[in-house]
Design brief:
The chain folds into two domains: about 70 residues, no CATH class; about 50 residues, no CATH class. The protein is about 40% helix and about 10% strand. The chain contains six helices and five strands, in the order βααββββαααα. Helix 1 crosses helix 2. The two termini are about 25 Å apart. The N terminus and C terminus are likely disordered.
């Protein structure tokens, strides 16, 4: 059984499968584009425990196998293909239900929400961001998304 089997039937770790509210300006395509590249995904202390429990391994093994320390922070590593170590092509994120807050926040990063030009660049990089949507609607959706994701993270802890 895949890690992300939809309760509605079918496969995938999409937000709809997890019961998370869809925004009008962003609909994740589970393409993995945001999972590509050398690590900017750092983990908070509670995330280390939550992800290791989800994977069914102890925290020490999790940190050794999937993380690296840089500049006083713990970062998720990337694989030989330069994708996040938890991303599997054709399957999606292996830790989607407990993914790090940095991942859950995408595309509503402060830079994208606070700067129209940065948002325009994000639209080109992310096929899930509505190309026809307005910046103002994106900002409004970001407030709802951040509030919902904060609530979901509190409930998971």
């Amino acid at each position: 059984m895949a890690l992300c089997e939809s309760p509605l039937g079918g496969m995938g770790c999409g937000d709809a499968a997890l019961g998370i509210l869809r925004m009008t300006t962003f609909d994740c395509k589970m393409c993995g584009d945001c999972c590509y590249g050398e690590g900017g995904i750092f983990l908070k202390e509670d995330e280390k425990g939550r992800i290791s429990r989800f994977l069914g391994i102890n925290r020490s093994d999790f940190l050794t196998r999937f993380c690296e320390e840089r500049n006083g922070r713990t970062y998720v590593t990337t694989g030989k293909d330069h994708f996040c170590v938890f991303y599997e092509k054709g399957q999606g994120c292996r830790v989607h239900p407990v993914k790090p807050a940095r991942c859950a926040l995408w595309p509503y990063y402060p830079a994208n929400v606070n700067d129209r030009e940065t948002w325009e660049m994000a639209k080109l990089a992310c096929r899930g961001i509505d190309r026809e949507g307005s910046f103002e609607d994106f900002v409004k959706d970001s407030q709802t998304a951040i509030q919902n994701k904060d609530t979901a993270l509190v409930e998971k802890s």
